[in-house]
Amino acid sequence: MLVDGHSLAFRSYYAFARSRDGGLRTSTGIPTSVCFGFLKSLMDTLESEKPAYAAVTFDLAEPTFRHEKTDTYKAGRAETPEEFTEDVENLKALLGALKLPIFCLSGYEADDMIGTLATRAKAQGFKVKILSGDQDLFQLIDDDEDIKIVYLSTTFGSRTSTAREFGVAEVLEKLSILPCQVVDYKALCGDASDNIPGVKGIGKKTAVKLLETYGDLETIYASIDEIKGAVKQRLETGKEDAEQSKFLAKIFTEVPLETDLETCKLEGFDPNDVIPALQRLELQHFVNRLSKLQASFGGESDYQPYVKPETSQDYQGADDLIDEDEDISFYSVAETDANSGIGLSGVKIQPQIITTEAQLQALVKQLKTHKNAEKPVAWDTETTSVDPLDADLVGIGCCWGDGVSELAYVPVGHHQGEQMAAEKVVELLRPVLESADYPKAFQNAKYDRLVLRKVGIHLRGVVFDPMLASYVLNPENSHNLSDLSLRYLALATLSYSDLVPKGKTIGEIAIARWLTIVVAMSIQLIV
Q1: How far is it, in rounded angstroms, from Cα 242 to Cα 236?
Q2: What residue spans of 405-465 are helical by DSSP H?
Q3: According to a count of CB atoms within 10 Å of the terminal CB, is the N or C end of the chain lower?
Q4: 129 beta partners
Q5: Is the pTM here over 0.70, yes or no?
Q6: What's the chain's Rg over C-alpha atoms?
Q7: How confident is the model over 313-355, as pLDDT tens digits?
Q8: What is the C-alpha separation between 292 and 40, in angstroms, rounded?
Q9: Regarding beta strands 440-442 and 462-464, do their DSSP bridges make them parallel or antiparallel, or are they unpaired?
Q10: Is the Cβ–Cβ distance between 362 and 331 less than 8 Å?
């Protein structure tokens, strides 16, 4: 797997730069759009493709041999944003910690590096896949398809973005030409993104028609007398531009790289190097998924979730730095230090599984005793979709205290296991959920409110939402429950993807297995 570093980095950057907040940043202002988007796409691709070897290539800022040919090459491009450059440098450091080799060489572009490595790898018997959003690399796809492109769509970063594998047939479908004709195609109609001129007046449709008839640029000019009218005139006038454009567009596959492909073998990383790098960039998403990240990079996936030690230097001297009014503080620094993460990961919870009407009536009676808004009952709905309008209710959970059994789960839509009819559950829970007399806490209450509205419950009494509280404290931070638990409790929790296999929903998970999610409910109340 060869990764077109700048292509993936730019797509990551602009995917988030278009958002309302203008990109991702840490609480101290470090830009992280590139690091997050790049690592997310890379991890997903490595997980799905499972390569044994991988490397990343990047362009350098200095001129290449193409610029020596013409100083107009890539002229007119917008200046690279300063924060993008900073983000890429942090990304390179992170990739170094992940032990993923990076290739750059003065005088050459990342595409040339990819072409050289791909050619060498194929010669040594490897199958090669290239992760990129750049169609220039289509020219590397060979007839035997030992080299293919995993092409990132232009909608990268959206919920519907996908990466599609391109071989000969896919290139023909998309561009109406063969991979071996990509260079000639650009020689004829040019490429505005790289300021490659092509032949003035020859558009894409004409270029395709010429290549369908004659095969390549050389044959087109060898057969120029067969071509009539304005097209012939334009080709004759633009011959020099066509030849120069072909030179600029062609990927060089003999870069003098002094490397052995064995240096690209994925063998995992040292978590002690990676965790601090991720935490500095506040990429808790990946800290929480360190086991999966390790497996994607070829290491052993049995690494235990990281819990910040009590004696961490980050906390030393905190009492001397914070002037705290004990009368108004929620918890003192000393109390936080003394209790952060302690005992939570080792608690053996004993959730009540509500499967009968009598059990649910008893639960409702218990819940009606909790009317203190300073200690709301934490609730959570489990559903089949992240879109509340498409979601079907699978279960409802609640937590009302810090005891190991003071939490319950009411399944209604699992495919397996004993459970009550959803209509009956709604009928019995309605008096609690629709009353403002019983204070409630929901993570992302807007979602749960819409889900409950679909089953006829008009939710009232929500007094706290950890996601909104987190946003008020620092809008730039992430606000999902896993990240909140890590940030405030130093506790890494199981994520949705850890519990639910790809392509399945919660409803397809056995009730007993799904109960691990109630850990998140208890954390929700604590946060």
Answers
A1: 10
A2: 422-433, 445-454
A3: C
A4: 148
A5: no
A6: 29
A7: 332 222 332 333 333 333 344 444 444 443 344 456 788 999 9
A8: 12
A9: parallel
A10: no
